[in-house]
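Why do we care about 3D structure at all? Because function follows from shape, and shape follows, mostly, from sequence. That is the central idea of this module. The next example makes it concrete: a single protein chain, its amino acid sequence, and then its structure expressed as tokens.
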Amino acid sequence: MALRPGRHTVGPDGGTCRVNTYREGMAQKVGHDLIIEVGQWQATVEVGDDGQPRSVSLEADPASLKVLEGHRGVKPLTDSDRTEIRSNIDKKILGGQPIKFNSSAVKLSGDKLIVQGDLTMAGSTRPASFELQLDREGRVSGMLPVTQSEWGIKPYRALMGALKVRDTVEVVLDASLPKEAN
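And the structure:
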């Protein structure tokens, strides 16, 4: 499948970027599995004249994270809980540092976009790779599992470690590339 040549940019107006977290530990029943929306982000796909993608990049503002849902907890999340979670993520986990991804290799194989590159978060840069599904209308979707400790992030813990966020979280992207290149 070929894409239209040029630079295709998408953000919150054309899709969603979310982070799914899961809890573990002896006290996991008091915590929640979270769906966190990234409010400010921008992804760019550069496509060559032959319709093949050349590069993929993404930037996200960690201060724009918003807790959408909390699942499987003993009690529902309150607005106060959401504010505290957001503050902990920004200050204790990501340290207010920007999140960026820049590809080093991109390959289109049928309806899959196979991407390799460097992911920067919490002040650390490491290699990352993932696959995105691409449909004929330009819809792109996929998930990147991120093991926090590989970026020097200590997964959140509470209740003396009896409640913890699993080390691996999921970054989920679902967006429509613009019909025309920028």
